[in-house]
Structures are given as C-alpha cells and as structure tokens.
Amino acid sequence: MKSRNRYQGIDPYVVNAVHHHARQLTYQLHNVLYEVEDIEQELMADIHHRLPCFDATKASAHTFITLLIKNHVATMVEHTKAKKRCDGTPMASLNQPVTDEEGCPVELIDTVPFNASLWDDGETVWPETAEQRMDVTRHLQLLPSRLRSVAIRLMAETFTEISAATGVPRSSLYDAAARIRASFMSCGIKKITAVPTN
What we know:
By secondary structure, the protein is mostly helical. It has helices at about 10-30, 35-50, 60-85, 125-140, 145-155, 160-165, 170-185; strands at about 95-100, 105. Helix 1 (about 10-30) packs across helix 2 (about 35-50) and helix 5 crosses helix 7 (about 170-185). The radius of gyration is 29 Å and the shape is elongated. It is built from 7 helices and 2 strands, in the order αααββαααα. The chain has a two-stranded antiparallel sheet. It is about 55% helix and about 5% strand. Among the domains are: about 10-85, no CATH class; about 125-185, Arc Repressor Mutant, subunit A (Orthogonal Bundle).
C-alpha cells in the first residue's frame, strides 16, 4: 500500500508523519471510504490551511503538525463511523404534512398503520389488558423463585444486561426463558401485551 504522492519541498518530518498516519487510518477503516493517497492529500491540505495558526511560543513545529494530523484523523474516523451508522434512510417528522390517497392534507403519523407503529395496537381494550395483567401477576407468583426473578428482570432488561449484572451465563438465561414461556403457554397466556407494574 505504497503511496504514489510526492511532496517535494515539504519538511520530510511532515511527509513521513502524513504517510504514517494515512497508512494507519486505512488499516483502521479497512479501506471503506478512503484510499491512502486521498487521506494523505486531505491531511496535507488541512496542514496547509492551519499552518498560519502556528505559534512557536506554544509548541514546536513538529508537535503542532503531529497534533493537527491526529485531530484530523480523529475527525475522519468519526465521519466514517457516522456514515456507517446512517443507512441512507431519510428522516422525517411524524407531524410533517402529507396528502393521503384522496388528496386531503394529513399528518404523516395518520398514514402509519397500527401494526407498523411503536405504540400499542389499539385493539386490546382496557378490561382485557387489566385481566391479562392480573393473570400474569398471578402466574408469576406460582413460578419458582429463580424463574420468577428472571421473568421479572426480562420485563425491563436484555439477556446481556442480566448476565452482566448477575454473572449467570446467557445460555442458562435462554433456558430459563424457554421454561418461563412454556409455563405461561400451559396456562393459556400466549402473548403478554401488558406487564405487571409494582
């Protein structure tokens, strides 16, 4: 991965530092967005742009250049990570005005079907929810204490979080969750849409 860029007339320390950090960055980013030459050119352009800010009373030229390069490399790493996080899906406000099939203006939230929303499906009426809550609470009391504690923690935590907090391996937690699920299903509780609150 030898660079083909040439920088005649520039301090060899700067050129070597730029080559070094550019190579390191390509290894760190696994050549996702940048090639070595592109990184070198961007680092050189940043150094050229910021060189007038150099103050010899605060640091040596080599220290200043090194800090410039390291800061710009960190910025490039953050930029690359941000690009990886974004899947290209556009963001939109749920209160954004749109038109429905009939051409009437509505808010975007009104066009989202209930089964695709993050909230309750709206089909479970309050008495059924309250009855299910009582059934779940009653059945939790019948579970062995170890399974009960796992079931209660699973209402608010992930398997990884429980494993880290208790030291119990995740495989044991998965087995416990399977036994809890089977126990609830044997009592006719197939899907829990409401959890007990204590």
